[in-house]
Amino acid sequence: DQGTSVVSDFDLFVSKTQVVSGETNTFATGTYTISESGPDGYTAEFSGDCDANGSITLDDDQNLECTITNDDNEPTTYDVVVTKDVSAIIADAGQTVSYTITVSNNGLATATGVVLNDLLPSDVTYLSDNGDTATDVVGNDITWTIGSLTSGQTVILVVTVTINQGTEGASITNTASVPCGEGDTNCDNNEDDATTRVNTPIPTYTMTGKVYQDDGPQNSSYDGDSEAGLAGWTVFIDEDESNSLNGEELSTESDSNGDYQFTGLLAGCYTVREVLQSNWTQTEPIEALDFEYN
Question: Residue 72: phi, psi to the nearest 5?
């Protein structure tokens, strides 16, 4: 019923002599055994002038005919295959990701009693799945009762989780598997995993300073509360070393106390300058200051 072989796939023999189906052959009188070799999975049945075992006796002036009928056997083996994919191979702590688990039967027979096990790693927290009542979830332990899988059938389970905080820099591997049954022809493909690497946040820094009026003595250094801070002065990071502020450079204004700050800076070296207002002279620093954070 499921066989695909044809007559030419089988080699036919009269005792040790190979013959071709449908052609007439001449033999001496005697007893011969009709046989064949060919694809597995078929049962041969002899009819015509042969007995049930393929034996035939030829007398003088006889024309005999033997027919072999091959019927494919009912399949008894199957091949359950598990594949697992993850929606993000690189993710952040706190991010939601989904595991897609595909279970297929690549064999001929129906696989019965199929159950998938998926123990989620402790680095994630279970949120949901699309298995309805077929899934049993206890903590991070998921059991998906599939039942029967016919030949060629595929089912899919999607499990959604959250990556836990504190997992930065970790590699999280999740494995799903189906126990190998007695009729499973390949137990090596009953398990698959998927891995997500959790990003490590890049540290950032804050740089602070003050714009002040250098009252006497003008010693090019800040003398504390005796020298007033200047509000509303523009301070910028001179990325192109042009000694002037352009529209793409990071800038800020000093507050009412003359204080300013730049936040979210990566480790590195920065040149900080001010936009000098009219009728003022910069006394500190005499040249641009380079600030390095690492």
Answer: -65, 140
Lateral strand order in the sheet of 171-177: 90-91, 191-198, 171-177, 111-119, 141-149, 135-138
254, 235 Cβ separation under 8 angstroms = yes
Instruction: Say what the pLDDT of residue 4 is.
Output: 81
| 148, 149, 154, 156 alpha-carbon torsion, rounded to 10° | 20
Q: Are 168 and 93 in contact (CB under 8 A)?
A: yes
The structure tokens listed for 207 are 């740089």
- Mean pLDDT, consecutive 10-residue stretches, the chain (294 aa), reads 82 96 93 93 92 94 93 88 98 97 95 96 96 87 96 96 96 98 96 97 92 75 82 95 91 96 93 92 68 44
Pairwise CA distance, residues 65 & 4, whole Å: 25
Beta bridge partners of 192: 176
- What is each CA distance from 293 to 203, 234, 265, 270, in whole angstroms? 11, 22, 8, 8
- Distances in whole angstroms, Cα of residue 33 to Cα of each of 40, 53, 59: 20, 8, 15
pLDDT for the residue numbered 287: 59
CB 176 within 8 A of CB 240: no
The DSSP H or E segment spanning 259 is strand 259-265
The whole-angstrom separation of Cα 239 and Cα 273 is 10
CA 146 centroid distance within chain: 22
Reading the block at residue 55, the tokens are: 């034996």
